[in-house]
Amino acid sequence: MKALIGLExxxxxxxxxxxxxxxxxxxxxxxxxxxxYQEVLTDPSYTGQLVAMTYPLxxxxxxxxxxxxxxxxxxxxxxxxxxQGQPSNYRSTGNLxxxxxxxxxxxxxxxxxxxxxxxxxxxxxxxxIITTEDMDEASVIRRAREWSGLVGRDMVExxxxxxxxxxxxxxxxxxxxxxxxxxxxxxxxxxxxxxxYNQLRLxxxxxxxxxxxxxxxxxxxxxxxxxxxxxxSNGPGDxxxxxxxxxxxxxxxxxxxxxxxxxxxxxxxxxxxxxxxKLKFGHRGGNQPVKDLxxxxxxxxxxxxxxxxxxxxxxxxxxxTHINLNDGSLEGxxxxxxxxxxxxxxPEYAPGPHDAEYLFDRFTQLMEQAS
Length: 371
What we know:
By secondary structure, the protein is of the alpha/beta class. It has helices at 37-41, 96-102, 113-123, 137-146, 156-159, 197-205, 219-224, 246-252, 263-272, 358-370, and strands at 2-7, 12-17, 23-31, 49-53, 57-58, 77-79, 82-83, 106-109, 126-131, 165-168, 171-174, 186-192, 208-214, 229-232, 258-261, 276-292, 298-309, 318-324, 330-335, 340-343.
């Protein structure tokens, strides 16, 4: 089925839908990972986006329940060069097309993803529309330009859980208290801004009993739970557009050890008094080089973000700990006086090496010292 892709810069591309009729409007971005498409699709950080994969063949190993990073699929559309509908993998329980159709997400193939990626790198992430229903080129360009975009919008409220839940036996369990059946020593409150399951799996593996709470849970409610530490999760969109979060983080600073990832890192930067800005085309993929300034080591990291903390805006008592070697942007920071640190990338995602898993150990060490 023919599909049109209209970009706000006036470009129109043709493709084929492999999921049937549909239409999606959002911010078009690219991901450079060679594998892990199911993890990409189930990452809540992609809410409101149209994701194009740079690796040319997608779908060849199918999908399975074990690789879910959340309970749903979050991009509005998925763009690939070539779709493989006959997966070959012993773990596969279904094909990608049926998976996307189950969640109502449009999938298209047959476009020049290399050209699209180069265009996004030059122009920046753009507003776009993908449709099998509107074949008028002038119309799709106009409609792409009319979309409101992601800047200034609260996308967290679309993906964060409205109620608390425990993480037990590798799955979410309804409840407002810490797990009692787990052996973990440390009680951790995890703020859900669009949390990924693997963050919860790793916290549990490192000896934590985890209670996930809604994004706007007050600092007073968190302190009443008497946790050993607070975790700030990843999430979608513009951190400056998220309401009811920064003030609560500020009240928790200095009271408990805090570890932030991705959007949680950005929210922590705002709580320090810093500012954030939108990157030209963002960092998305499993091969981003990051330098740890404390050790001099380089980590190969997984990333998915379109906004960044401005290091020049941070107060003197906040130290930059990691930088991106591609563009020099801030990738990590820590407070010089309080037990709080964060990274922009995703240490819970292993794109081959496990370079960044030590950050979860650092969090448990801070809780150990504070106990």
